């Protein structure tokens, strides 16, 4: 069949959520601080839905919606202002390009994020229907950046729309130590005026955002440096790239999801190593953490955990896979005893059990103190 005759095929939910958007634009519109807060609330609902923490509610016509408390969106009792910001978002279109996984053709998608606003009279709430095709856009924070969980309270409380965007960018880079951003692309992604010089970008955007994010008490922040990565012959070097240096609290200090991931990885690595009496398991996890790849290793072990739960892999197989990962990716070599890896029944901590952070914290506290 000729390529032009290949019919359009609906995507599965998995295919849809794996869309990698390119050429992302939001028109030439200026997004206000309040509108950024509305997008934050929608994005937070989407992230909870994707992680299966809380499914999106649907209306009579099976369209997704979120209910917005105007005080939460604006920080003050001003429903009229929130409504006006939401109405204005209806007029603003987004667009992105993506590769269709079955038709194998480029596709350009254009739409509006908000489709309908419902004013619940005599309340301080509004209900917003949003376009599901806006999900790849809403979870996009820059080239090479995937959507990642951020702290909704911090995102809403930060001052300045540029600061809010940069906070989401650095949250999406938690597992890296640095992130390189071309200045022209940075100006485009944040809809900065074309007239902004490097000095103005630093004074009006980067420095205020750096200070506000650090002062917010969040577990992730950044330092930065503007450099000339592509000097032009015969011209004075001019910075064309921003180097973001991502700073995070140690997972044990950060608590919450970070501590859960640290503890979960530690338990599996300790099991694979045969529950060593020395600090080799802790040292291995510390090395993974310092490399900025803790989340990556956590995801890999979760995958193996699911395989074991479904009976598709055995514990010795997974232990060998973990040891191979440590050797090949992190240069960590560990000898294990046959008695431990083959004959001893090792109690596995399932993801459901591991979610009890208080229990895990009490169990691990003594180990970490000794380390």
Domain module tally: 3
Spatial ordering of strands, largest sheet: 1-3-4
Helix/strand/pairing category: alpha+beta
* Separation, N- and C-terminal Cα atoms: 64 Å
Number of beta-strand segments: 9
Largest sheet: 3 strands, antiparallel
Q: What is the average of the pLDDT values?
A: 78
Estimated share of beta-strand residues? 15-25%
CATH-scheme architecture of the largest domain: Orthogonal Bundle
Q: Return Rg in Å.
A: 24 Å
Indicate the percent of residues in helices. Answer: 40-55%
User: What count of helical segments does DSSP give?
Assistant: 17
Which series of helices and strands comes N to C?
HEHEHHEEEEHHHEHHEEHHHHHHHH
Global morphology: globular
Q: What fold name goes in the CATH topology slot of the largest domain?
A: Arc Repressor Mutant, subunit A
The poorly predicted ranges are: 141-147, 336-371
In the CATH hierarchy, what is the class of the largest domain? Mainly Alpha
Structure notes:
The model is unreliable at 141-147 and 336-371 (pLDDT under 50). A hairpin with a 4-residue loop joins β5 and β6 (125-130). This protein has helices at residues 13-17, 33-50, 70-74, 79-90, 135-138, 152-157, 161-171, 183-189, 198-215, 251-254, 256-272, 280-290, 294-309, 315-330, 338-343, 351-354, 357-370, and strands at 22-25, 65-69, 93-99, 106-112, 114-120, 125-130, 178-182, 220-227, 241-248. 47% of the residues lie in helices and 15% in strands. It has 3 domains: 12-140, Arc Repressor Mutant, subunit A; 150-248, Winged helix-like DNA-binding domain superfamily/Winged helix DNA-binding domain (Arc Repressor Mutant, subunit A); 253-370, no CATH class. It is α+β, with helices and mostly antiparallel strands and 371 residues long. The chain has 17 helices and 9 strands.
